[in-house]
Request: fold
Amino acid sequence: MKTVNFVDTTLRDAHQSLWNGQMTTPMMLAIAPVMDRAGFESVDLLPLVYMDWLVRYLHENPWDRMRLVAEALPNTPCIIGGVLIGFGTIPDSATELWMKRVADVGMRIIRINEPYHDMGRIIKCIRWSQAAGLTNMVALIFTDSPVHTDEYYAAKAEQIAKAGADIIFIKDVDGLLTPERTRTLVPAILKKIHGIPLQIHAHCTTGLAPICYLEAIKLGVVSVHTANPPLANGSSQPSTLNVLRNARRLGFSSNLDEKALEQIKEHFEYIAKRHGFPTGVPVEYDVAQYRHQLPGGMISNYRFELSRRGLEHRLEDLLEEIALIRRELGYPIMVTPLSQYVGVQAILNITSGQRYKVVTDEIIKYVLGRYGELAAPVEERVRDRIMSLPRTRELMAWEPPQPSLEELRAQYGQGVSDQELLLRVMSTNQRAVDEILAAGPMKTDYPRGDRPEMALIQELTSRADQDYEYIHIEKGDFSLTLKGGTR
Reply:
């Protein structure tokens, strides 16, 4: 009997997809001991770009999140990573140092997403990961286009395998895989990777991902990336419980503990109810997804942006414009940050009254090839328009700045620790960094949602306005009376 392994995405991609990244570290720590014994192959925790998000919006120190969660999951490797290099925001010197320091705080696997599958950048990241003692997993980022064929992905997979990848995974960020394409794509890749484990990571944007997972494991994919309800489905990953039960019905075994999975589910259901977070539900199939290929969360963001400008009735026009730009630009894969670049240009094309009247620096750099090799040429008419812009001539000499660590220390302070240096390099708000560093140790208390009686007691006793004489809780054979402090 073949075994299928599960990589949990609940603590990273799932809550980014459904809760806009609002899950806090205490929410994670409360259920971490249960997750550690659930039997996951690994747990995806944090992308590099989320370091800044944590500082600015959740007022958390990401180094604390990594360390505390790693300590709470001693038997389960934590994954960290994402788009590591190539967009001119974080210099190579900082990224290389970051890999070493995340290993120091307990991260064990680095996830490498290169939107262009640029081998020079992938090789660089693999070497950095090896030097840091991290297992690397490299993404084959899937998209549907005339140029992204099975042969394209097989060739890239072979190059990645030869470069020293420990794990390769198919990353279907837009939910575009179909069962039919899975049946041809997976064998084509497996033939070229010389026994390296192949995993699959997909979003449920079209509702097809759970079916594609079952096809993939029948064909030889060894691990699937899933999320626990209520953070599964919707624009998130397939449900761990659903995929597990279907895989077992197909004759596969698994090391997962269903009792632990139910406890995890109860905990996150409690969080969703307590904070008013949405729960993931299966979505209806929408063929338009194959035209614009936007990640699910971006559509709601653009609906809001258009509404703010009084143009909410133009959403369908915007999606059609995104599809057109993508074709004109040679089919960029709609993954961060390329999806954002295309989306912003589409808004400008619609709101300025003339297509490409205003062109962002990011699109100009893309057309110039500054971000990496294009899968297909830019349409001649669009390229001519962009190349004629004065700003294009200014950016033709642009190269991503690559300051050394010594230069970064001269900028941010010679005496700061590596962790503080990296926070400052990666953050867009230095004041927010000051505040989290001054705040001291993170408060980690949060109720266990799978233990409702204890959660109730914890919430009642933590209230500042304890205006009661006593609290009496009774359920079955359980009875508890707490004396209050009447004011």
Observations:
- The chain is about 50% helix and 10% strand.
- The chain has three domains: 5-275, 289-395, 452-483.
- The first strand starts at residue 5 and ends at 8.
